[in-house]
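Case study 2.
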Amino acid sequence: MAPYESDESTTATEADGPRAGRRRAARYAVPVAVTGVAAATIGLVPALADSGSPDLPKISAEQLIQNIAESDTEQLSGTVRITTDLGLPDLGGLESGLFSDAARGADGGEGSAADPSARLTELAAGTHTLRVAADGPDRQKLSLIRDAAEYSLIHNGKDVWGYDSESNEVYHSTTEETGKAQDVPATPKDFAEQALKAVDGTTSVTVDGTAQVAGRDAYKLVVEPKQSGTTVGAISIAVDAETWTPLKFTLTPAGGGAAVVDAGFTQVSFARPAASTFDFAPPKGAKVTEEDAAGHSESDLRLMPEEDVDRDAEGPRTIGEGWNAITVFDTGGEGLPTGGEEAGAFGGFLDSLGDQVSGKFGSGTVFKTRLVNALITDDGTVYVGAVTKDALVKAAEAQR
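Prediction:
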């Protein structure tokens, strides 16, 4: 456990945490980080809604973080409500085509509407209701509830199933990895562990009173960057006072206004879910898409033509530290086409997000949300992080 400033605040030394998270977000095709990372962030920062201030024993930030780390909660079920406000523009229905392209393949090929890499991207905007269940590291289920349909992602042992009831399509993959499947959302404890990896010497952590969440008493843990230049204002985590399980989280942007992500349990039980919760068999007549041995399916989203991707391009590197860390990588191409008929719906989407910039590095486009920003230069270099537009431009200037 890292040293703490006082009983009510702390700084830790796990400097690799935020860097590792950003490295995971940085693939050669990461121009989509402005939406993809945002969806992933939902797992890190569910919302804090104070519905009461129960009288609980005083606890230090250090002890609360330790209790979260030592929590042995493996079984739970409940309902989660998520609202995401990344400041994305109104696309006038274009988002439906974007998600459809992602599910079907950007090249128009036959993919699967049940592929989780496409379906869960819907969480990047708007308000959604999820039903979740977990029974240890080998069984989890998440269902995204829509007006007249639902999408479910089920991990049961080595099998991972995605099912879209609207299209009656199924996506199936297997995992040899002991623990959880790659595409299946983790338990709330896993979410909190990921968020707390951002705690390093550039971070202040405090206990800010108590709350009641989904009928349960909780402590409020607040994580705040000490650095300027980051888009993150604060992260609040409501921690169950009995099981030490995170119940709700909120991420507030440095620029103020509504929370970027506001999500958390509206109902929760720590009883073991019925084993049948995780059973799944493809319904009669359903189209089933199998993931191939390389971990790809027909519905993989291609952001640029295969022949334009340089497989030997330089791997990602990190500049800066803490909340100001920026991941830099070379796509090996000539930037990302963002307009015209060839770019399709996704290109138009990027156009609506982008600001043209120039400097010693040449020229490029900054794609912005209220949380994650990315600069893509015309020579194919990408700078991405939870930092401001100016910070990205300065980083590009410093590398030339």
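Residues 45-290 form a domain with the outer membrane lipoprotein receptor (LolB), chain A fold (CATH 2.50.20.10).
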